[in-house]
TrEMBL record:
Family according to the record: Belongs to the aspartate/ornithine carbamoyltransferase superfamily. ATCase family.
Segment forming the signal sequence: none
Assembly and binders: Homotrimer.
The species this protein was found in: Aquilegia coerulea
Pfam families attached to this UniProt entry: OTCace, OTCace_N
Protein name: aspartate carbamoyltransferase
GO molecular function, one term: amino acid binding
Database matches in InterPro entries: Asp/Orn_carbamoyltranf_P-bd, Asp/Orn_carbamoylTrfase, Asp/Orn_carbamoylTrfase_sf, Asp_carbamoyltransf, Asp_carbamoyltransf_Asp/Orn-bd
Catalysed transformations (reactions): carbamoyl phosphate + L-aspartate = N-carbamoyl-L-aspartate + phosphate + H(+)
Pathway recorded for this protein: Pyrimidine metabolism; UMP biosynthesis via de novo pathway; (S)-dihydroorotate from bicarbonate: step 2/3
Enzyme class: transferase
Function, in words: Catalyzes the condensation of carbamoyl phosphate and aspartate to form carbamoyl aspartate and inorganic phosphate, the committed step in the de novo pyrimidine nucleotide biosynthesis pathway.
Length: 406
């Protein structure tokens, strides 16, 4: 099939090709087989099936920019604009082993591997929309071991596994309804569960618990949040969302707001954003939950500009992203007085939206309480539910990569 005719066909279909189409539509040249998905990642093809939510962002130019007046694809795939291209592309070729054995913290990733993961996540969007019967992970079992409450993380991982043809073993309250309640150690629990499954997704109330689990297990472990430590898959979906919404990751300004001391999402996000050029971070929080010095020191060591301020309105007017977080009552223990002191100090409402730039977005890892008012939801700059949806694609990508490779 000629490349020009394939472009015309792809444009005319107006859908992302399903997994079967991607795997069977091969192009041969000089003895090299290149899949359609590879061509996509090298900026040769672009679906016109773009959601209204994403089309409003700079990530997707208007139709004429993308396809030209004659309907021919004349613009490089916008994923390159947002995420860049991996310099070590050969390492991410189809069939190669994934570079990481476990997903434990944000420091594991460099910019090249982030770019490659985001390309796989983009492919997963097509699979989720057009290939409900995908069998990529058929025969694999995932165990979700959650010692803390979760809605989005646990269900998105389970949905991701099932959408790729895998199966799930789950416990949603392992702290109370597993042998941990009888005093069993985490290590013994992991040794047992790895005998029943192929990959473990763990959320725990202690920082460092996921690393302990990974050091014990002989199968991949994904950290789904370890106390006030880190939440790497959340950070990956956050960066993916920023790229999709803003259209770039270099040269952006991000305001991190709320519980920055206990918020594992903002810690992991700060680590990942440090991989990009000319990023500036603003820390806006009550004094009792200020960003910890280890993150500030790390950013300084990487040459990332950051500023601590109490003025949310000024930050909102400057930033491309306002990343709001919940004040986490469960991290305060008996010091409810400190929680009440911090709660409600910074709220994103219509007044904040009024000073934000038109292209900027509001993000939140969810759940929210009252730190974003519900009347913000109807504004197109409210990206937090699109952000949650992106978690499915990122987690589909991670499961696929850890279990079967690139």
């Amino acid at each position: 099939m000629a490349l020009s005719s394939s472009l015309t066909m792809y444009k005319a279909s107006m859908i992302v090709p399903n997994r079967a189409a991607v795997s069977t539509a091969k192009f041969r040249g000089q003895g090299i087989m290149c899949s359609l998905s590879t061509l996509i990642s090298h900026n040769l093809l672009l679906s016109k099936s773009v959601s209204a939510d994403l089309k409003r962002s700079n990530f997707f130019p208007n139709e004429e920019q993308l396809f030209g007046k004659n309907g021919i694809c004349c613009h490089a795939l916008e994923t390159e604009k947002a995420f860049g291209t991996a310099e070590k592309a050969i390492e991410f070729s189809k069939g190669n082993k994934f570079q990481l054995d476990d997903i434990l913290d944000a420091q594991q990733f460099d910019r090249d591997i982030l770019t490659a993961i985001f390309q796989v996540a983009h492919d997963m969007e097509g699979i989720e929309k057009n290939s409900p019967g995908s069998q990529i992970l058929k025969g694999y079992l995932m165990a979700t071991l959650f010692y803390e409450p979760s809605t989005r993380t646990r269900l998105s991982f389970e949905s991701a596994m099932k959408r790729l043809g895998g199966e799930v073993l789950t416990t949603e309250n392992a702290r109370e309804f597993s042998s941990a309640a009888k005093g069993e150690t985490l290590e013994d629990t992991i040794r047992t569960i790895e005998g029943y499954s192929d990959i473990i997704v763990i959320r725990h109330f202690e920082s460092g618990a996921a690393r302990r689990a990974a050091s014990t297990a002989g199968i991949p472990v994904i950290n789904a949040g370890d106390g006030p430590g880190q939440h790497p898959s959340q950070a990956l979906l956050d960066v993916y969302t920023i790229g999709r919404e803003i259209g770039q990751l270099d040269g952006i300004k991000v305001g991190l707001v709320g519980d920055l001391a206990n918020g594992r999402t903002v810690r992991s996000l700060a680590y990942l954003l440090s991989k990009y050029k000319n990023v500036k971070l603003y820390f806006v929080s009550p004094d009792v939950v200020r960003m910890k010095d280890d993150i500030k020191d790390y950013l300084t060591s990487k040459g990332v500009e950051w500023e601590e301020t109490a003025d949310l309105m000024e930050v909102a007017s400057e930033c491309d992203v306002v990343y709001q977080t919940r004040i986490q009552k469960e991290r305060f223990g008996e010091r409810i007085d400190l929680y009440e002191q911090a709660r409600g100090k910074y709220i994103v409402d219509k007044n904040v939206l009024a000073v934000m730039q038109k292209h900027a977005v509001v993000m939140h890892p969810l759940p929210r309480l009252d730190e974003i008012t519900v009347d913000v939801d109807s504004d197109p700059r409210a990206a937090y539910f699109r952000q949650a949806k992106n978690g499915l694609y990122i987690r589909m990508a991670l499961l696929k990569l850890l279990l079967v490779g690139w």
